[in-house]
Amino acid sequence: MSFKSLSLLASAVVAAFIMTACTTVAPEKRPPIVEKPAKVTAPIPPTGKSADIFQATKFSDLPGWEQDDVRETWPALMASCEVLIRKVEWKELCVHANKIDPTNLSAVRTFFETVFVPYRVVNADGIDTGLVTGYYEPLLRGARQRGGAYQTALYRTPDDLLTLDLSSVYPDVRNMRLRGRLLGKKVVPYFSRGDLEQSGALRGKELLWVDDPIEAFFLEVQGSGRVQLADSNETVRVAYADQNGHPYKSIGRYLVDKGEMTLDQASAQSIKAWFAAHPSRQQELLHANPSYVFFKEEKIIDPKKGPKGAMGVTLTPERSIAVDAQFIPLGAPVFLATTQPNSDVALRRLMFAQDTGGAIRNPVRADFFWGFGSEAGEKAGKMKQRGMMWVLLPKIMDVPIASR
């Protein structure tokens, strides 16, 4: 096939898929970061889409910065550095981080203030506030074999699901989820949720069986979770493996548009209550979201740690967020100023952008990871707040070229 033909095919594929597709601690005296800190020069200027939505500012402009116990972010920073240390602008920063006493509040705060520059994030329309929601890692009841109450399957990635990477030709689709399947000699969009469930296309790809179809749906929304298995007396993690390429559509919004509830009422808890009260309309509501998530099983090495996010590193409860990676670089610290779920109580703390989500779109948009269990689920389900964001970008470190 000629390059021109390939280019035309790629254009058609892109078009088709786009169409479907806080504790407070008093400040201490701050010691130097290292004995001989590296010389710091100008901050790295944002480029591309970020150049229009980042506004350089000062740490003193971050509301609540001095009150946040930034020591709690250290596990998240170390997780980010597992990946970012391979990038030249992050390498020296991550090396310095390993020399900091993570129990020393003033040393940790000085570290952030010395190696980063804060940028206020604004949307394309110049508005600096956006939606902050929450997510968590739920616990489901299940079994390895179908039977009794366990009649709802969680599925592995199907063999015919294609992942299309056209970013080398079309940079604008770099952060888009392009999935499809072959139909003869054509690549067409993959099956929607309704098509998958009605056609039996996933038969034979069952991973585990759970006892509640509604909890299975919300597991997809969260992206990962744990399943307590009755037949093997173990608890395993089911992690995000892939997705069918269709855009996520909120079933809460669907209920609001149908007049079933108001926007203020549309929480995870109220949606589950609606499901229970309208059993005959469950399929209607589920199929309103054409997106479908596939899972893989993982062992739980440390129950205190969260699942891996889109960045490939372990999420830190209450210190990791999901962002729109088209604008916010994965791995970067983000200072978030919002309020507690369904409350006016301030929630201002340093987070790390380590995950993404189908519903997380726009520069000032965050999904707050609350952790594991029912308490985390209560908070996540009620969180629908307004918030502001400041992304912290590293300064250029003046170090010998040989050390890079």
Could you please describe the fold and organization of this structure?
The chain is α+β, with helices and mostly antiparallel strands and 404 residues long. 24% of the residues lie in helices and 27% in strands. The strands form three sheets. Strands 4-17-14-16-15-18 form a six-stranded mixed β-barrel, surrounded by four helices. The protein has a six-stranded mixed β-sheet with strand order 6-10-5-11-12-13, covered by helices on one side. Strands 7-8-9 form a three-stranded antiparallel β-sheet. A hairpin with a 6-residue loop joins strand 15 and strand 16. The protein is globular. The chain starts with a helix and ends in a 6-residue tail after the last strand. The N terminus and C terminus are likely disordered.
Helix content: 10-25%
Please give the largest β-sheet. Answer: 6 strands, mixed, barrel
Number of helices: 10
Terminal residue distance:
42 Å
Strand content: 25-35%
- What's the count of strands? 18
- Structural category is alpha+beta
The Cα radius of gyration reads 23 Å
- List the strand order in the largest sheet: 4-17-14-16-15-18
What's the overall geometry? globular
